[in-house]
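DM from R.C. (forwarded with permission)

"hey, sorry to bug you on a friday — could you get me a structure for this? deadline for the figure draft is monday and I only need the backbone to look sensible"
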Amino acid sequence: MRKPIILIIAFLVGVTMAMAQANKSDIDQFGKDNVAENQQYGNANVAYVYQNWNANTSMNYQSGVGNEFSTLQEGEFNMSYTSQYGERNKALTSQNGAGHFSQAIQSGQENEAGITQIGSRNYSFVDQWGYQNKAGVNQDGAGNSSYIYQGYWQNEAQANQIGDGNYSQLSQMGAMNKAGINQEGTGNGSYGGQWGSSNELWVNQRGNYNYSSAQQSGWVNKGEVTQAGNFNSSYLGQYGDNNTAKVEQYGNNNASSATQINRFNQAKVYQEGDNNRSNIYQDGTWWTGGYNNAEVTQVGLNNGSDIYQLKDYNLAKVSQTGEDNYSWIYQDGLYNQADVLQEGHGHYSTIDQIGDWNNAKVVQKD
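My reply, with the result:
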């Protein structure tokens, strides 16, 4: 009795292997002058292309095991490229309108990419290599561009752009980083870079020609940038571990710069009005590492603030309301505190603290 059982088992294994090795490719075309090409090498890969209307192009390549992609094109002169190398990668591209271009490259295992473009002449590029990275792009309008680069494992990135001529770029090279860019309006630009692990970055821009640049290097840094209005600009640099920064700007032509080095620094900036400027620089000694705290609130026109915190455990707070006010705070030591309140027009304040445990307060009002 043993021999028939062995034969049956061998037959079932052979059927299972044959089914596992079967690739599947489907192409549906409606209209004229559409072009689609699927190349599959490996086992159990699945490809689907749907084209409706005229002169759309889809070129695709799969090599490995269990990769899946779908491409949907509705309209004219849209182009899409998908390349998958590895195992169990998934990609979905949807383009509705005219003249869109998209490209998704996946190399590794279990990466996921989703691209949706509506309108005309939008451009999207996603490059993933590593393990279990996730990327999403949504663009609605004309002439928007998005780039996402992900390396190593379990990074997550999302770019959403509504309007015309917006540009975003996200680079994640590490593990378990999360980033999102949301832009609504015309001509906004955002750059985000994450190197390290478990960093978070969120950028929201609404209006026209706003600009944001943020870089994170280290572990567990958190950054948030919100800008609403026109021609606002923000720079955020976090180089170390466990730093936190939040920037909010509402109005026109406001500018903010925040740099955090070492560990456990906190920065908060709120600017409302026009032509306000804020600069924060936080560092720390190598053996302790920071723990500085800076907060700036400016409401009005043409206000300016500079805060420099060197060494550790310094606290600085600036609040300015009105026009043409300026505050300078320089702290080089340990456990220094500075508090500035200026209301009105044209007030000027400087505080220099060199040493430890100093405390200064300035109040100026019209």
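R.C.: lifesaver. The longest strand covers residues 24-32.
me: no worries. Helices lie at 2-20.
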